[in-house]
Amino acid sequence: MSTQADRSYRWLFWCLALVGLAIDQGSKYGVFAWLYNGTPNNYRAVIPGAFWLNVKFSGERDAGKDFLSPLRTVGGDLLPEVNHGALWGLGGKTPDGTGTGMNDFFALISLGAALAIAAWSFRAAAARERFLCISLGLILAGTLGNLYDRVVFSGVRDFLHWNYLFDFPVFNLADCCLVCGAGLLLLQAFYGQPDSEEQLAAQAAAAAPEQVAQATQ
Q1: Is residue 175 flagged as an active site residue?
Q2: Dist. CA 51–CA 161, nearest whole Å
Q3: Which of 21, 135, 186, 205 places its Cα 20 to 30 Å from the Cα of 41?
Q4: pTM of the model
Q5: Could you tell me the CA-to-CA distances from 160 to 44, 119, 196 in Å, in that order?
Q6: Which contacts qualify for 18-23: CB closer than 8 Å, 24 or more apart?
Q7: Catalytic choice (6, 66, 149, 158)
Q8: Is 158 one of the annotated active-site residues of the chain?
Q9: What is the tens place of the pLDDT at every residue in 34-54?
C-alpha cells in the first residue's frame, strides 16, 4: 500500500520537463521552417487582428564552421533573427548595435537555474509534492528550451506575437512554460499546505502494520 510518505512525483517532473522541451523545440523548428520563404520577415495570422506567428530572419547565412551548424540550418539557409537578451530585448546588443550582447551571461544563468531545479527535484520532500513537481517541471522545460537556443543560435528564437489591446513582446513556448511554472510555484507558496515531517512519519507508522501483514500473507 502506497502512502504519502513514500509516494514520489519525480516522474511527473521529468516528463513535463522533457515533453515541454521537445514541444518548444519542435514548435520553433517547425514554425520557422514552415514560414521560411527566403525573405527577412514572414507571418501568419492565428487570430486575425490579435495573434500572429511572426518569424524574422537576419539575412545572414551560417558559415558552417562548427559542429552545431546543421542544427542552425534545419529550416533554411538564412539564420533566424534571435533575441540575445531577456524580455523586451534587455541586454540584447552591444553598444555599437552588433554582437550577441549578454547572451552568454543569460546562458550561464539558465544553466545554473536548470542544475538547481534538477537538484531540488531530488529532495525527498519536493518529490512528494505533486503541485511543486508540476511547477518545477514546467520551469525546467522553459529554461532548457531557451538554453538550447542560446547555445546553438546565440540567442532565443521567438515567433508568437500578441497585439490586441496592447503590443506584447514576441515570445515562444518556452517562455509560456516559464510563466506558467512560476505562477503555479507562487500559488504553491501562498496556498499549498504540504504535510509536515511529523504528519508523514505518523502516516508511515500507521501504515506499517498493514504493510507487514500483506507481506506475510
Answers
A1: yes
A2: 6
A3: 21
A4: 0.82
A5: 10, 31, 42
A6: 18/141, 19/141, 20/137, 20/138, 20/140, 20/141, 20/142, 20/145, 20/173, 20/174, 20/177, 21/141, 21/144, 21/145, 21/148, 23/173
A7: 158
A8: yes
A9: 999 888 889 999 999 999 999
